[in-house]
Amino acid sequence: MDQSDYNQFLDVVYDSAVDPGAWPQVLRRFAELTGAESALLIQQDEQIGKGQAIRVNVDPDAAEPYYGHFATRNVLHNTKDPVETLRKWCSNAAWATCQPAWPFAEGRRNATRPFSA
User: Fold this and answer.
1) Which percentage of the chain shows pLDDT scores above 70?
2) Under a CB-based contact definition with an 8 Å cutoff, are residues 59 and 66 in contact?
3) What angle do CA 5, 96, 7 make, to 5 degrees?
4) What span, in angstroms and rounded, lies between the C-alpha atoms of 110 and 103?
5) Would the N or C end of the chain have less CB density within 10 A of its end CB?
6) Is the CB of residue 49 less than 8 Å from the CB of residue 71?
């Protein structure tokens, strides 16, 4: 992937922030750039276990077995308080998205420090 491919991909990702209908295009382009046959983006509420997915080139017959297999292995479903479990789990991790000072949490982008440590 060269710089122009990367920039074009980021343009599509940023477009999806204001147009949720662009997510299939993001996934399609991501699959192309990575050489994948398909792509899947899952959003799930860990407290109730319900969610939705955006699929690109995913065999519909494969979806149910996939969810059935991985849903039973989700460690957050076996805890009393999934949100607190995730908060504790991330407190020792180096994942910037788990930090409470994450600038996107307030709906704004911090261009000089995209992720707070």
Assistant:
1) 72
2) no
3) 10
4) 6
5) C
6) yes
Integer Cα distance of 47 and 74 in angstroms: 12
Q: What is the pTM of this model?
A: 0.60
Tokens of 77: 């479903």
Greater model confidence, 107 or 88: 88
Q: What is the SS3 assignment for 55? A: strand
Q: How far apart, in whole angstroms, are the C-alpha atoms of residue 55 and residue 35?
A: 16
More confidently predicted of 103 and 76: 76
Packing angle of the helix pair 3-18, 23-34 (nearest 10 deg): 160
DSSP per-residue codes, 66-95: HHHHHHTT-GGGGSS-HHHHHHHHHHTS--
Residues forming beta bridges with residue 51, ordered by sequence position: 44
For 94, the token pair is 């180096």
